[in-house]
Here is the input.
Amino acid sequence: MIQNFISMNGYGFFVWLSFAITFLACGMLYYKTYKTLKKYEKDFAKELDQLSEAERKLVLEKSKVASQFLASYNKSI
Amino acid sequence: MFDLINPSRIFNWIEKLINFINSIFFILLIIALTFALVLSPPDYLQGDSVRIMYVHVPSAWIGLASFTAIALLSIISFIFKIKNLNLITKSIAPIGLLFTCLAIITGSLWGQPTWGTWWAWDARITSMLVLSIFYILFILAHKLIDNKDRANKVANLIAIIGLINIPVIRYSVDWWNTLHQPSSIKLDGTSSIHPSMLLPLMLMLLVLLLYCALILLMKYKTEIIRIKKKNIKRI
Amino acid sequence: MLTKKVKKRVSFLSLLLISLVIAVFFILKSLTSNILYFKSPTDIQLSQDIIFNKKIRVGGMVKKNSIKINAQEIKFVITDLKNEIFVSYSGTVPNLFSEGKGVVAEGKLKDKNFFIADRILAKHDEKYMPPELKDLMKKNVK
Here is the structure.
């Protein structure tokens, strides 16, 4: 039965290869996207960190995105 | 009116959506794969090679739908000059290109055992290849043109011109003799696919759509952070 | 909200799209004979200027009870229900090649009724169903 499942009555090569290519390609795009996102998050956090106390306060007050970002970023570490 | 697509508002629920999709994704993936590879019956003619359809058809649909979305958003963005929409179209493009290529590759893997050839220059297959070229041009326009406004304008025009290709792909199998079979699922909702095979097809479509949403959200978040980072001194 | 600039862009885009649709329509129309992946037996009967030494593709349905296999070659009839064409071929055929199903043959015409193929492709239809259902349908027909 398992033999049959793998060979797919002779079509195994084509079926398994197309599923494998699909999931491999999707996985690679996910990995690339995830890595780029993390890199930008890290850089952004670093840059916020380098600002002086007064500057950071001003940025966080004016930009909702920056404050939300910092809140979620600190949680995820 | 356009406040809904304001980045600072969106940013908050992007995070929640990503977490939600991550929590249900793998369960759905396993269910869909079980149906596609184990529980669904083989076809009366094609045998088990019909299972390739469960990745091929959703990929082709997503490839077409992504480009339609990009083109429509490009039209709005071109007319009203909304910069945010360009962030979205830029985030959709790689997903669309990936799935268009997957549709071509899996189609070729299906064609070899069923038709007896890997490739045929018939209208459907060639027009899909043209679609992938439009995706590449769109992405290249963003990558190669340094001036952001110019890049957006050129990319938008490429997407709008490429929109003509979409109905050509859709109706190629009806207008001309092609090796590719006509559509099994018509626009009016009738289908010539047996329900036991339609179920895994729809499940795989759902899983791949969730995957697309995940990538889109992550890419969009990256774009927002990139812009905020560049303007950090000015916020 | 509709400023002058917006109106200008709308008219530019509609003009662009309309002219593109017209251009693409005429290009595709003039290329029809190249876009067609195969000719039907009727197309071949009707055409005036057949080039006998050029490779072409003929497609249609394999006529029921027409396949004859001997040691050297496979002979069958391609039909589009109006006209027919005899095909002779030597080589392997795809799994899905069978009577009553779609087929595309690649090769050269000997005359309007006889075709020598050097490649056979199976053309699939848009119906998908499990084998048990097909058996059931056959029984019902009988």
Remarks:
- The mean pLDDT of chain A is 85.
- Chains A and C do not touch (no CB pair under 8 Å).
- The helical segments of chain A are 2-7, 12-50, 53-62, 64-76.
- DSSP finds four helices and no strands in chain A.
